[in-house]
Specification:
The complex is a heterodimer of chains A (245) and B (127). Chain A has 245 residues and is α/β, with parallel strands linked by helices. Chain A has 11 helices and 6 strands. With 127 residues, chain B is an all-alpha fold.
Amino acid sequence: MAQTHDHGDHSHPAAPMVEEISEFEILEIAVRELAIEKGLFTAEDHRKFTEWAEQIGPAGGSRLVAKAWTDPAFKARVLSDGVAACREIGIDWAEPTGQGTPSDYMELRVLEDTPTLHHVIVCTLCSCYPRPLLGHSPYWYRSPNYRRRLVRWPRQVLTEFGLVLPPEVEIRVEDSNQKCRFMVLPMRPAGTESWSEEQLAEIVTRDCVIGVALPRPDRKSDDVRPVHKASRPVGGEHHEPGGSP
Amino acid sequence: MSGKTVLGPAASDAPGAEISPIPLLDAIQDEGRPWQELAPRYGVANPDPPWKVSLYAIFECLSAGGALPSLERRHIEDRLGETIYGRTPDPERQLLALADTLLRRGILSEEDLARRMDAVRGRLEDS
């Protein structure tokens, strides 16, 4: 159904919307209203946290890394005091209450990768994540599968993300906790020597600062999803029994 | 922060305790359509339902007021997500786990919640 959206001097097709009210949407509203009526919190508190949550995202982490790559003095400050360095790029961990949120302790340690050391972060206890800098954690980061297995078999789990590291690279898993959050400072990839900070920020995707991917000059966070043609289509004539699943 | 009520643990919070589904929430789990099913049907690209940010703000409010600390909530989500609400994806599953906690701890009653859901549904369908 093609609808247009009129702005007076111009119009464009309206963005598609879900034209259906789900039971989950209704449940969220009902729970919130009743919780407010029972005095668990106020509508104003809720509005304040919603406003904060809607403006966080992974862009802060990308900018922090890009600036650290191009400015050695800033990089030194990032490594010595992550929260203070964040303020330099306009991210204040104290928001929205003046003391941060109840879920984000104001301690950030940035872990620098080297040619022989790769970091990856996890929270085995729950899902602690540097939200003021990276926004909300991805679903898989919160899953028991990732949390339990990464600390035991980091190399294997990274391979499942498509990241195969040579055996000489040590993998260090850093377990977040209630008192401290971590972020990875990956190595600047070759082929980006003349790039601006803005260009560099584009290739530092969320997964790169978690440590499950490496930045590449040919991959940006807003790229369209890669689609690879299957080399062995299911049901194709070339299927060989006993091949890999 | 206004929250003064602290949600005391329910008997079913004990490790290893048998958890039986709450009928109202179980029905929502069975009949409700999660976002990952609805969004592609309408050609919507946003990976998250519009109410997710509001749900997360509820979590922050409950934790800030001391009613339900985040770590405790996450443990509940893990436990319920691997048992009675395992058929539902996030964030719907997180919402079910929260509603379950409020019901099981006696902060809300199933009747109150069902009645309020009817009222909300009427309001949304009216507009």
